[in-house]
Specification:
Elements lengths: L3 H19 L8 H11 L6 H12 L4 H22 L9 E2 L2 E2 L1 H4 L2 H21 L6 H15 L4 H10 L7 H24 L7 H28 L2 H4 L5 H4 L5 H5 L1 H18 L8 H12 L3
Helix pairs in contact: 2-6, 3-4, 3-9, 3-15, 4-6, 4-9, 7-9, 8-9, 9-10, 10-14, 14-15
């Protein structure tokens, strides 16, 4: 079995080709919109959410071609959220994944339409490809991604984030915000990957979901630490932006060292949630290590 780095690199490279194939081709009208969609999705990012989907797919012996579609749907939702988050009406950022943000490279109207189109394409993919032999389970997958993306998931978390500028949130309030803003889509990636293969029992699904919850929060805690410690070149996006905008973070609430301790505790809890899955969950464990430990 290849080591984690080789496994991740192989999936990242192959998945880039999957995205190139699934996105509208640049010569297809309206050309500028399709060009901007491809600009915003391709050649950037660590593809953490797709990797989580692939790792969960391995746990249930899912066909890789099916997981490709589920992973692409999640990544398109994630990309749309970044395009919209970077716009002047939200975080007003000029750099994403080491290159100008979509509204800077194109214009605000195009960026708005790019986000809308990527979101629509995500659900089109879930609807037009066979991801599970049970139609009811596939319909549940559509519902899962919709819930994770909407007002009770990612979009709702962003709304709380925007409303919290200049405020000092208590730890439970901060966790509630990030369980939705960041965690919901990470949990969805894992569960969607798992839905592409053999059925799990309710207890197993709950343990996978708890793993996703812990990993999702840890991901955000580490991001907050990096935003305070790393430079723009390392991050590929504007460093220190949260502090400049007076946003509540785990660092401003707890301090750097306590935030790092929290990330390590979430890491341990995530691994514990996988304790009953055996070697089939190896890649999920390695991804938890990658998310928490690679940056400190």
């Amino acid at each position: 079995m290849p080591d984690f780095q080789a496994w991740a690199s192989a999936h990242q490279q192959r998945f880039e080709d999957v995205l190139r194939r699934l996105l509208p081709q640049p010569g297809l009208a309206p050309q500028r919109l399709h060009e901007a969609m491809r600009y915003s999705v391709l050649d950037g990012g660590k593809r953490v959410r797709p990797l989580l989907a692939f790792a969960a797919g391995e746990l249930v012996q899912a066909e890789v071609a099916r997981v490709d579609i589920a992973a692409a749907a999640v990544e398109l939702i994630h990309a749309y959220s970044l395009v919209h988050d970077d716009m002047p009406c939200m975080d007003n950022d000029v750099l994403r994944r080491g290159k100008p943000t979509c509204h800077v490279q194109y214009d605000e109207a195009t960026a708005l339409l790019v986000g809308d189109s990527l979101q629509s394409l995500a659900f089109q993919l879930l609807a037009e490809h066979k991801l599970n032999d049970d139609a009811a389970r596939q319909l549940a997958m559509v519902k899962l991604l919709a819930s994770a993306s909407g007002s009770r998931g990612m979009a709702g978390g962003q709304a709380i984030d925007l409303a919290s500028v200049g405020k000092q949130l208590a730890l439970p309030e901060l966790e509630f915000m990030h369980i939705h803003k960041t965690g919901a889509l990470i949990r969805a990636a894992i569960l969607l990957g798992a839905q592409c293969g053999a059925a799990l029992d309710e207890g197993q699904v709950n343990r996978l979901d708890h793993f996703g919850k812990c990993v999702g929060l840890a991901f955000q805690v580490v991001d907050d630490v990096l935003d305070s410690e790393a430079d723009t070149a390392t991050l590929g996006k504007t460093a220190g932006k949260d502090a400049q905008q007076d946003k509540p973070t785990y660092v401003t609430l707890l301090g750097v060292q306590a935030a790092k301790k929290m990330a390590r505790e979430l890491h341990r809890a995530a691994l514990e949630a996988l304790s009953e899955f055996g070697d089939g969950a190896r890649r999920l464990r390695e991804l938890a290590d990658f998310i928490v430990l690679r940056k400190f």
